[in-house]
Amino acid sequence: MPSDHRGMLVEEYHSCNEQVSRLDSLIWQTASIILPITLAGFAYFGLSTSHTLEHFFILLTVAAGSTTLLVAWYLLSRAWYAYQWVAFYRMREIETELGLWHYRYSFYIRQSRSKRKAMLNQMSDDEEIRFRKVAKQLGGLPRFGARAITRVITAIFLVGWIVLVVREIFLVF
Asked: Which of 108, 100, 98, 96 is nearest to 137 (CA)?
């Protein structure tokens, strides 16, 4: 492979890696603003002893606003994860072309046992040996990634707002 082509691939790999890092930071920096605000709303309304109609409508407004922010964060994070996936995909292509392994290993390890087995059946003997070694070193890695975490966090906070609103309905009406 000509060195200028190799250099271009290394540069593209570096660019993809920066995009992955930037998007990951964006997802969690956004969460670090939205989630504490939501927690503060939970604390304020959860500890409130005032159960008036006015207080109910304020809670409803804050819950709607917080829910909108949470859903927007979740949808944006899904889009950003899709962009990351494209960058990871391209990085694995470049790794294959350059003989690198990092993200190819990561992709393999994230798969379920049945998908890993199917992947191994499609590999050369050398690749299969390498992937089996890395899998053996890691053992049973749990398959709970950042995408699932954003889904769980969003669901927990949405349920929390629903519970607060329902509680207030019973206390006010």
From this structure: 108
Write down the domain spans for the chain: 3-98+113-172
57: amino acid identity, one letter: F
Alpha carbons 37 and 129: distance in angstroms, whole number? 49
For residue 103, give both structure tokens: 């993200």
Nearest to 30 by CA among 84, 85, 87, 69: 69
Name residue 122's amino acid: Q
Whether residue 172 contacts residue 53, with contact meaning beta carbons closer than 8 Å, is answered with: yes
The Cα 104–Cα 97 span in angstroms is 12
Among 74, 54, 79, CA closest to 158: 74
58: exposed, middle or buried (C-beta count within 10 Å: 0-12, 13-18, 19+)? middle
Could you report the per-residue pLDDT of 44-72, keeping only the tens digit for each? Answer: 999 999 899 999 999 999 999 999 999 99
Look at the block and give the residue holding tokens 């604390």. 43
pTM to 2 decimal places: 0.83
